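so my prof wants the structure for this chain in the tokens format not the other one, which i didnt know existed until like an hour ago. anyway here's the sequence
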Amino acid sequence: MSLTPESFAFVADLVARRSAIQLAPGKEYLVESRLLPLARDAGTDVNTFIAGLRAQPTSPLTTAVVEAMTTNETSWFRDGAPYQALRRAELPRLVAARGGVGRLRVWSAACSTGQEPYSLAMCLRDELPAAMTAEIVATDLSEQVLARARTGRYSQLEVNRGMPAQMLVQHLRRVGTEWEVADALRRMITFRAHNLLDVPPAGPFDVVFLRNVLIYFDAATKRGILDRVLRVLRPDGVLVLGAAETTLGVHDGWERVTIDRTSVYRPLGAPNLSSVPTPHRAPLAPTGTDGAPSPIGHTHRSVTSLAATTRPTAPGGPVR
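here's what i got, hopefully its the right format
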């Protein structure tokens, strides 16, 4: 049975109100395929399932519908170049600006099943000096994908998507048929539910990764999200977007900076710290075990670059 116009209109309106994700006409097939498992669990077809939601709009199943309509496309070190820019340019710049001491805070927004924040944790652990700690706040709309991310466990197929072999050996361990992220990396990350339409996590942040999600919003929603990010980013911090995304023509509070094969975005008027020398990097200290954001350990310092791995952009449909 094909999705009726009334069913599609209800779902499109629900998703737009809850997440600002736009489901344009022509996406009926996407709605039907995403909601079919929920309908089967309820012992009915998709149209009847949606009719039940229309009769009970406060049902907890409405949250499941919104989560089902998000695309959790992700992999390790996605597109490669942004992580290279972080390692080679932005982290040295930020470390120098802070004198090589203190805490660096990162927000991984729309983090899906965790590959992005864990990739960031590997970069930070490899690159930051001993006197600096790192904290990553990883957020997503979907509680289901966050539950998976918190486990830190991935199948062989999942680790094959972008994970360099040397990083796999350094930062993950085999557990049965799966791979588990090292405890030291997991202690650096706090996963929490967050809707990009809401007030951001408490800042300030030095780095924000907001990749491959703005493309699913209209201009006004993009502008609002970028404005909220700007408010929690340090004046000399950096925003990293997806390859198909930009602040240009959307929000005038940002400056695009080209680094090798990619671009990053800094708050307009941010201080120029390119001439500040990077502090001498002492041997890196072991990681703490108290559950707090951890000093970066020297045992991981040998890897200084990543393979330029590429993962595909998200297929058509809303993301996270």
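also thought this was worth mentioning. Strands lie at 102-108, 132-140, 153-155, 172-175, 178-181, 189-193, 205-210, 233-241, 254-259, 262-267.
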